[in-house]
Specification:
The structure holds two protein chains of two kinds.
Chain A lengths: L8 H56 L3 H9 L9 E6 L4 E6 L15 E4 L3 E10 L2 E11 L1 H53 L13 H91 L5 H32 L4 E4 L1 H15 L5 E5 L5 E4 H17 L7 E10 L2 E8 L30 H11 L4 E5 L5 E8 L3 H6 L4
Parallel strand pairs in A: 7-9
Antiparallel strand pairs in A: 1-2, 1-5, 3-4, 4-5, 6-8, 9-10, 10-12, 11-12
Helix pairs in contact in A: 1-2, 1-3, 3-4, 4-5, 5-8, 6-7, 7-8
Chain B lengths: L3 H10 L7 H22 E2 L12 E6 L7 H6 L3 E2 L2 E6 L11 E4 L7 H8 L5 E4 L11 E6 L2 E6 L1 H6 L3 E2 L1 H6 L1 E2 L10
Parallel strand pairs in B: 2-4, 2-5, 5-6, 6-7, 8-10
Antiparallel strand pairs in B: 1-9, 3-4, 7-8
Classes of the chains: A alpha+beta, B alpha/beta.
Chain lengths: ~500, ~180
């Protein structure tokens, strides 16, 4: 069975109305019945008393003359009175004198007369009245009235009450159906509205207010809540739209920036390319006139040397020397230019072996100097063999070139692992340089020393460029007359790869 | 309130023959004395029967008094219809202001004379002489199975201006006599 609070309001109202009316009617019926009973009891007492007095009056003589037969005869007249079931007389001694009982009477007469007056029990009304003659008491009359009258009346009342209750129940049911509408219908409407809102997510729907009662208030409050919700939703949507807009703007800005960067990069690359092809072309084209200058100078020396005096010959030698120097310069420039277009093919390298090899060639080209290379155990590097050889050539030949005029040339090659990168250095005991100019040392055509040392100022620039292309860095330190040390870093090679590709 | 006399009377009614003859006779007259008192209570005399408003109601015993003290005891201090009851024992010439006249059995020989003397005066005549009512009396005692009973002639009472209670008539044996009906 469902609990009352789970029942629909419709049913609750019906139950409330019916219970109320039933209780009210039942109370009214009970009060009326009680009142009626009281009235009937009073009537019974009155009627029975009157009857008793009449009988008493008519049995005075019989009592006075001690004639029970006559008294019985008088009592017998009660036969026509259905409301008296039994009666008897007592004499002055309280002895039963005469008695009367209807055939259907049950029970016995009191042995002695009781106190004058009436006494109700559940079955009967018992009444004792005095019998007097000439103001003197000559006996007592006892009358018994059955409660049947009262019970019949109660039964009738109960029956009528039931009929009225049944009728009232039906009327209450019909009325409650009509009366519940003003309460239940607005509530149902409200429920339906809220369901519709939940289902469709539409906050513009509003419940219709009916009446000024609590439900009307509820409807208004509900609508106000919807207003607030709708406003909040609108604000949320706006915020989301703003955010999306801002994001789109940022994305667009990024896109523009990237596009600009790409454009700039392309421009730069193009410019760089143009520049390099320009310098390559220039260098290449400079060779032809230079070759002509050298060739004609040689022809002049060979064919007309015998007519030239010594001074002219010396000047011619200078021209030829300078032309040759310029050729070297152009070769270096071309090498430098080519580097940018060159593809690196990294493989594990043993820089120590490579350095030994290079120093051997240097000794051959300069047999008058004693060159000593001291090399520690070097970690293998992952780098392009051809270009790395160029790096070592440049650094080692620099060490030989800028060595002090006298004595043995001592060069130290070192290296150590430093995470993913290996650090290497080439140290000499040459003339060194001033740290003030360290920034310029790796620039193209930058030369710290004058004509005392031959050079084009391109070698260290090439070193810098190659190392940079490998993802490494170069660094130099030194002091005038105290030698120099050039550091460079390269990506470390794994040991397995080293096993496979030993530098020949 | 229960008076001693009525109680006495009630006991007397149940007296049986086991008692001595004298005692039985005494009991019988005690009952008859009470009856006389009762008759007075159920009979109404006309106003002219009394000399004045305060005149007593006189119960007279004519002839030899068989009641002894009992009648005086029953009536003593009693009053009916606001009239004091008195007991008198007059001779034949003094019966004019009697209201109830009990004719003793001793007067049987001169009953005719007595009744003639009473004439049609408002006097209730009572006696236990056999055939008293037949011979012109109003109420006559008789014994029925040892119970005291009485015979009444309502017409004779009416002739004398006496109103008898219907209850009294209901208790007694009615004797139809007088001007309207023939005697037995």
């Amino acid at each position: 069975m469902r609990r009352l609070r789970d029942l629909p309001i419709r049913t609750k109202l019906t139950v409330a109305i019916i219970v109320t009316s039933t209780v009210a009617l039942t109370l009214a019926a009970i009060v009326l019945a009680a009142f009626d009973m009281a009235v009937i009891r009073r009537a019974m007492i009155r009627d029975t008393t009157v009857m008793a007095d009449v009988i008493a009056r008519n049995t005075e003589a019989a009592l006075a003359f001690g004639d029970p037969d006559a008294a019985r005869k008088t009592l017998g007249s009660l036969e026509s009175e259905v409301h008296v079931s039994a009666a008897c007389l007592y004499d002055t001694d309280g002895k039963l004198f005469a008695e009367y009982a209807r055939p259907d009477h049950v029970g016995t007469f009191p042995a002695k007369p009781g106190t004058d007056g009436h006494l109700f029990d559940s079955q009967k009304l018992a009444l004792f009245r005095p019998i007097t003659l000439n103001k003197k008491r000559i006996g007592t009359i006892y009358l018994e009235a059955p409660m049947k009258r009262l019970h019949d009346r109660l039964r009738d009342l109960a029956f009528i009450g039931m009929l009225v209750l049944a009728g009232a129940f039906l009327v209450a049911l019909a009325l409650s159906r009509r009366m519940q509408a003003p309460i239940a219908v607005p509530l149902l409407a409200l429920t339906n509205t809220s369901r519709a809102i939940t289902r469709r997510g539409d906050f513009t729907i509003r419940a219709t207010r009916v009446g000024d009662d609590e439900i009307g208030e509820l409807t208004s409050a509900f609508n106000q809540m919807l207003d607030v919700l709708a406003e909040r939703e609108r604000a949320l949507r706006e915020e989301i739209a703003e955010r999306q807009n801002a994001e789109a703007q940022v994305a667009e800005l990024n896109e523009r920036l990237e596009a600009r960067v790409r454009e700039r990069t392309a421009q730069l690359e193009r410019a760089n390319q143009e520049m390099e092809s320009f310098s390559y072309t220039v260098s290449h084209d400079l060779r032809a006139p230079l070759r002509a200058v050298d060739g004609y100078s040689r022809l002049l020396e060979e064919d007309h040397g015998h007519v030239l005096d010594d001074d002219a010959k010396r000047l011619l030698a200078v021209v030829r020397d300078e032309a040759r120097r310029m050729g070297v310069l152009i070769d270096d420039l071309l090498a430098f230019s080519r580097l940018s277009g060159q593809t690196l093919r990294p493989s594990p390298l043993n820089l120590g072996t490579m350095a030994e090899d290079i120093v051997r060639e240097l000794r051959r080209s300069q047999p008058e100097r004693k060159i000593d290379l001291k090399s520690t155990e070097l970690p293998p590097a992952l780098a392009d063999g051809a270009t790395m050889r160029q790096v070592l050539v440049n650094l080692l030949s620099n060490a030989v070139k800028y060595a002090k005029a006298e004595g043995e040339i001592r060069i130290e090659l070192g290296g150590r692992t430093d995470g993913d990168m290996n650090a290497y250095w080439v140290r000499d005991e040459g003339v060194g340089f001033d740290m003030r100019y360290v920034d310029k040392i790796f620039g193209v055509f930058q030369r710290l020393h004058g004509d005392e040392f031959e050079g084009t100022g391109v070698g260290l620039a090439i070193v810098d460029r190659i190392v940079a292309k490998h993802g490494g860095e170069v660094r130099a330190e030194g002091a005038p007359g105290k030698g120099a040390c050039f550091h460079f870093t390269l990506p470390a090679a794994t040991s397995q790869l080293l096993e496979l590709e030993e530098y020949p | 309130m229960v008076t001693p006399r009525i109680a006495f009377f009630a006991i007397a009614l149940t007296v049986t023959g086991t008692l001595s003859a004298q005692t039985v006779a005494d009991a019988e007259y005690r009952i008859k004395a009470v009856f006389l008192f009762n008759f007075v209570q159920f009979v109404e005399w006309p106003p002219n029967a009394f000399a004045n408003e305060n005149a007593p109601l006189a119960l007279c015993v004519l002839g030899t008094d068989p009641f002894g003290e009992s009648l005086d005891q029953v009536v003593a201090g009693e009053s009916v219809q606001n009239r004091r009851l008195v007991v008198r024992r007059p001779n034949i010439t003094e019966i004019d202001d009697c209201h109830l006249l009990f004719v003793s059995k001793s007067e049987q020989p001169r009953l005719g004379e007595v009744l003639q003397h009473v004439g049609s005066a408002p006097v209730l005549t009572v006696s236990d002489i056999d055939g008293f009512v037949t011979r012109g009396g109003t109420i006559g005692f008789y014994l029925d199975r040892k119970r005291v009973r009485f015979e009444i002639s309502p017409s004779r009472a009416q002739t004398r201006g006496l109103k008898m209670s219907s209850q009294l008539l209901g208790l007694g044996k009615i004797h139809h006599s007088g001007p309207k009906g023939g005697g037995p």
